[in-house]
Amino acid sequence: KAGVTQTPRYLIKTRGQQVTLSCSPISGHRSVSWYQQTPGQGLQFLFEYFSETQRNKGNFPGRFSGRQFSNSRSEMNVSTLELGDSALYLCASSLDTGLADTQYFGPGTRLTVL
Amino acid sequence: QKEVEQDPGPLSVPEGAIVSLNCTYSNSAFQYFMWYRQYSRKGPELLMYTYSSGNKEDGRFTAQVDKSSKYISLFIRDSQPSDSATYLCAMSKGGYGGSQGNLIFGKGTKLSVKP
């Protein structure tokens, strides 16, 4: 079974631009979570989507948004990019059977903001 | 105080050594505890998953959870150079439809196993 895939793998943008990252979960997985990883802050939870609805949200500004499609694929968008948004953005999917399911991570999208 | 504390290392050990990695946490609502391994330029890979207190063993890896002390550990026996990676602890409150998708991570410990 194919793992979690994320596109693009690398991205370079300039301040003020916006960016959209894509995540395809493992087949059959219904929950998708997004995380930001930086050397200073480590892995931080951005938001989680289930059945096209945002179920949980971390402590990030409104410039960070996401959505989930009916096939469980998800996108996240960052508007008005800042230098501090440079990070590895990770997507994780899980079955969501009703308990704390195992989350499987993709390889991430490395975003550099110049 | 951060919810999850983890010594970032780096930790360097000779091949064959027993490695002990630890995390402490402050939120008593955490019920699910995980250890992930992350190689350079890769996404985290789940190693161990434990519910509540107790021990769990999988090959060379043993995870321990002590909820009374809010302390979790990962032991690696007979460490190999291929174990060189960053190890991240993670925890969740769990619960259906609740915060199960929200993992709280430690900052990770960078481990190097020397041949």
Description:
The complex is a heterodimer of chains A (114) and B (115). Chain A has 114 residues and is mainly β. Chain A is 0% helix and 53% strand. In chain A, strand 5 and strand 6 form a beta hairpin. Chain B contains one helix and eleven strands. In chain B, strands 2, 4, 5, 9, 10 and 11 form a six-stranded mixed beta sheet that branches. In chain B, strands 1-3-8-7-6 form a five-stranded antiparallel beta sheet, with no helix packed on it. The N and C termini of chain B lie far apart (37 Å). Chains A and B meet through strand 4, strand 5, strand 9 and strand 10 of A and strand 4, strand 5, strand 9, helix 1 and strand 10 of B.
In DSSP terms (H or I, runs of 4 or more residues), the helix count of chain B works out at 1
- Average of per-residue pLDDT values of chain A: 92
Q: What level of helicity do the residues of chain A show?
A: under 10%
SSE order of chain B, one letter for each helix or strand: EEEEEEEEEHEE
Rounded to an integer in angstroms, the radius of gyration calculated over CA atoms of chain A is 13 Å
Strands, helices and their partners?
The complex is a heterodimer of chains A (114) and B (115).
Chain A: E1 5-7, E2 10-13, E3 19-24, E4 31-38, E5 42-50, E6 53-57, E7 64-68, E8 74-78, E9 87-94, E10 104-105, E11 109-113
Parallel strand pairs in A: 2-11
Antiparallel strand pairs in A: 1-3, 3-8, 4-5, 4-9, 5-6, 7-8, 9-10, 9-11
Chain B: E1 4-6, E2 11-14, E3 19-25, E4 32-38, E5 45-51, E6 54-58, E7 61-66, E8 71-76, E9 85-92, H1 95-99, E10 104-105, E11 109-114
Parallel strand pairs in B: 2-11
Antiparallel strand pairs in B: 1-3, 3-8, 4-5, 4-9, 6-7, 7-8, 9-10, 9-11
Which features characterize this protein?
heterodimer; A: four-stranded antiparallel sheet; 11 strands; B: 115 residues; mainly beta; 1 helix
Short description:
Chain A has strands at 5-7, 10-13, 19-24, 31-38, 42-50, 53-57, 64-68, 74-78, 87-94, 104-105, 109-113. With 114 residues, chain A is an all-beta fold.
